[in-house]
Fold this sequence. Notes:
The chain is α/β, with parallel strands linked by helices and 454 residues long. Helices cover 25% and strands 27% of the residues. It contains eleven helices and 25 strands.
Amino acid sequence: MKVVVIGCTHAGIAAVRQILNYYPNADITVYERQSEISYLSCATYLHIEGTVQSLADARYVEPEDFAKQGVHMQVNHDVIRVDAKAHSILVQNLLTKELSNTTYDKLIMATGSITAIPAIPGIENAKVQLCKTYDQAHDLCDYATDSHRIAIVGGGYVGVELAEGYARSGHDVLLIQRPSHLLNAYVEPLLADKIANVLTTHGVHLLTNTQVTAFKDTDDGKLLITTDHDQDQDYVVDMAAITAGMIPQTDLLQGQVKMAKNGALITDDYMQTSDPDILAAGDAAVTHYNPTGTNTYAPLVSHAIRQGALAGINVCERRLRTIGTQTTTGMLIFEHTVACTGLTLAAAKTARLNAASVVYQGPYRPDFMPDAYPVTIELIYDQNNRKILGAQLMCQHDVSQAANTVSALIQNGGTIDQLAFLDMLFSPNFNDTYNYLNLAGQLAVEQEKGYLRT
């Protein structure tokens, strides 16, 4: 059996590992445009701030690692065309420009995504950088060496992390976000305001509800940014970084398999597309979203490795089905943990759920303990069936694993009643007699005027 994997970052790597494990006799060929694989892009800001000494340290697999196991690793190769009916592909060697045709029995699309480049006049300026791939990260870091004032366009996870990285490294940072608050797809306005306060306290200049309208060169070699925020106010910086969302790279299968509106490949629970011989994983594919029971597009590393693993396991036999996702995420921003899972209240209402929320604020452990930092939790739930739909937490203490706990509850249809009395350990070193998650659940129960009879 000949298996071809197109793309070898996180989803492709996970798929190859499982194919080697489950189908040791498979003939595996991997095509990857880049010369390097496995770069964790979150390391970009960590390198900028000095936590990670080298970008290369964030590569966890090298092409040679797979080549030693018999995988035909074709790096610097671009797949130009896929003919699903003929089970054939056309490939170009990017170094020699030579074209070649090959065939496959099974194909795994792990082609990933590209940065959504907004249609802004002047965005092609060399001082405007992207930050997704290993090479782009190198360019971003190198350009910043001689730059002092830096603009970041996009206030999602990548934008906020880059803002911290540059601020920690002594740069003057301008963060521009088109929506009205930061991380709008992940947190409520309450936590967004807290995050904004942390950033501004550390010197980041923040513009929300603002759209960049143009990039222009100045006479002295700087970059001028105009916005719709204030027609009389322009911003002059040394460089800008674009972090405005992701677009799935699926043009190779246009018109050949079913796709979502944004072009992401639609798969079943076994990562199989509408073509039984083509599987898809990672940023190229949709994922099943448990809080709504529908498909969604969420380009996250955590999804990519799980979907890639499933694609590899199921490439020949339908062995293991996905259990879906809650899109659980987390970040550390100036010693504050922000962790999220499931729906925001706005997203729940958009999904036409009868959703409500409660906010718990209190020390994460007893007041008599040192550094009993306050934790803020916003818990979202369905008033009809009392099921938990989502949660966001923020604290100077590491509360990231609490988001994983809520994720598990959502995964299994957990309710606010169960959260309120969920068995959780007690030690004043870690929490109070009731864990802060219990207390958030109890607030929701109080809001619903008591526990359901069981």
